Amino acid sequence: MYDFNYHRPRDLADAVRLRSAAEDGVFLAGGMTLIPTLRLRLASPSDVIDISGVDGLSDLEASAESVRVGALVRHATVAVSADVKKRIPALAALADGISDAQVRNRGTLGGSIANNDPAADYPAAILALGATVMTNKREIAADDYFTGLFDTALEADEIVTAARFPVAEAAAYAKFPNPASRYALVGVFVARIGGAVRVAVTGAGDQGVFRAPEMEKALAGNFAPDALNSVTVAADGLNSDLHAGAEYRAHLIGVMAKRAVAACA
Amino acid sequence: MPAVSMTVNGKTVSGDVEARTLLVQFLRENLRMTGTRVGCDTAQCGACCVLIDGDSVKSCSVLALQAEGAEITTIEGLADGELHPMQDAFREHHALQCGFCTPGMVISAIDLVTRNPDPSEDQIREWLEGNLCRCTGYHNIVKAIQAAAQAMGG
Asked: How many other β-carbons are positioned within 10 Å of the β-carbon of residue A262?
């Protein structure tokens, strides 16, 4: 790991100012992706701005309408939260399935969705539930937030402060984890909200998380696993790598989607 | 160099470190506490687990500076005159062979039993996802953790 200047601001304004003043700054939350990345010298920022001490980013609030997860809330916290389990149990289950216990003890919602790893779990929940990503500057709709591999609508001086997930009538996440890393080889999050059905796929797309409109249409007519029998998932635009080929991933999307729908029952 | 200060096994420690210094390096090289191991070096094997404010984390993926002000517990901090019940159960149940993963296993297992005082075999195996052992086949580790959970009052 190359050396860098380390900062630990106490508020958002300071964090943004430090990032703006840095030649090549990055924000650090739990560090479960960034630190390994730095260690592999895949990145060599001039400044690391540790936002873990910033006030106001660690709250978890739930109501009958929505669950608001602060950017610094750890996966382990979401996984066991009675409020999240009551309002959106699929979200708690998703958090409980991220990596391993030690990573869940450090990794944060904000870090996950700001990084937008194509095999991360949280992006599927954001997109399928139609969550709102809240930043220090604005609110961004899920459909406008993810813009490609490790890419988001976030600007350089923008920090995720929270995500607001609407409470679904039914929702479930089914994942086929890579057995070593537990990243999603394929993960499918299915949600029924206000009569509409949204399906988001992670782990598979060569541009990261994406919605599956044909599945959504089929499920809107009949919210049952069998409704997906008529949907063919093409391998076009899916990743092939040492873990799985595009055709295998295409097959898994169908299987995981059915499992998720079945789990909604 | 930046200064860092934290509590390790009940004692306040401090030092000057490069920003890029990992917590595990600080423990092993600055404090000469080498019970915490570096195994895979990529946050997968769990040999470097320590407790930060009670939560088990992989200290190879935490900067020393991120632990500023934190309470750290390492394998050296568990025994108090006699072995911690988890250490004792690992010995009793022959839950180690080469011993390399053991400090991380014991730390991780203590975190589990703190959260879940009476874990099932499945829950223990699930929890150990982040701790790799290449010798034992895990069976005796699972038995040891079950026994320690009972001994710790679960």
From this structure: 14
pLDDT digits (tens, 9 = 90+) for B88-97: 999 999 999 9
Closest-CA distance of chain A to residue B74, Å: 15
Verify that A74 and A159 share a domain, yes or no: yes
Cα dihedral sign, B17-B20-B21-B23: positive
Residue A233 CA, chain-centre distance (Å), reads 22
Q: State both tokens at A30.
A: 């739990």
Record: contact A28-B46, CB cut-off 8 A: no
One-letter identity of residue B124: I
Between chains, do A105 and B44 touch, taking CB under 8 Å as contact? no
Helix (H) or strand (E) holding B4: strand B3-8
> For the segment A114-160, what is each residue's pLDDT rounded down to a tens digit?
999 999 999 999 999 999 999 999 999 999 999 999 999 999 999 99
Q: Which domain holds residue B100?
A: 85-151
Smallest CA–CA distance from A3 into chain B, residue: B20
B-chain residue closest to A2, CA distance: B20
Give residue A205's domain range: 60-264
Q: Read off the DSSP letter of residue B29.
A: I
Residue of A2, A51, A75, A102 best to disrupt the B interface, most CBs of B under 10 A: A102
What is chain A's mean pLDDT, rounded?
A: 97
For residues B74 and B8, is the Cβ–Cβ distance under 8 A?
yes
- A3 and chain B: CB distance < 8 Å anywhere? yes
Contact B65 A99 (CB under 8 A): no
3-class SS of residue A105 = coil
Which residue is closest to A32 within chain B, CA to CA? B61
A197 membership: H or E segment, kind and range: strand A196-202
The 10s digit of each residue's pLDDT in A55-106 is 999 999 999 999 999 999 999 999 999 999 999 999 999 999 999 999 999 9
What's the CATH number where A27 sits?
3.30.43.10
- The H or E element spanning position A83 is helix A82-87
Q: Do A168 and A46 belong together in one domain?
A: no
Domain count, chain B: 2
Candidates B41, B42, B44, B110: best to mutate against A (most CBs of A within 10 A) is B44
